[in-house]
Amino acid sequence: MRTSFGQDIAGVAAGLGNDQIHIWRLRYDKAQRREPLLALLGVYLGMPAAAVRLVEGEHGRPELADPAQAWLRFNWSHSGDGALVALARGTAPGVDIERLRPRARAMQIAERFFHPMETAALAALDAGERERAFLCLWTGKEAVLKAMGCGIAFGLDRLQLAVAPAAPRVLALQGDDPLQWQLHAVQAGTGYVASVAWRGPERAVVYGTLADSP
What we know:
By secondary structure, this protein is of the alpha+beta class. The chain has one domain (about 10-210): CATH 3.90.470.20. Helices cover about 25% and strands about 30% of the residues. The protein has helices at about 10-15, 35-45, 105-115, 115-125, 125-150, and strands spanning about 20-25, 55, 60-65, 70-80, 80-90, 95-100, 160, 170-175, 180-185, 190-200, 205-210.
């Protein structure tokens, strides 16, 4: 599905069901701050972007200020000039995007912060595979923690994920049942790696692209 802002978005938004996760890809411009996010939320809420009010959650996650709008849950992430917005009914999605680029300290970060089994799996990959696999792990962990409403202070080693090329999956999560979690790679465009996560049954992931996306 590909659409332009202001044309088909309202129809897509109206079709958001309890069995879906909507993910929109858009261009990120630091100067615009949250304006594109507010505009998109306004379409889903049926109100002008200027009327949408956000508050910061306990760990900095933006949430809708009006309790009457609590049916709509969302999360967004940006890296470079790319951004993703995930929206859902009845569950809090977590989404994370990272630009694909060489990271000289990837293994050092993994050894310090990741689960030992993940670090061992990364070390077994060749350099070309390891770069993307590291970002798949990183974005997956961020997505799960954001869906939980936690920051990375929760501890990246307290959840264990399957390592690419295996399919994304939560293998262990301290204090919770990993089988209750869904984790998927996201179509984020060339040069990006991204993940989306939520707690609950499997849902259909519906993609959209806003005008001028990278």
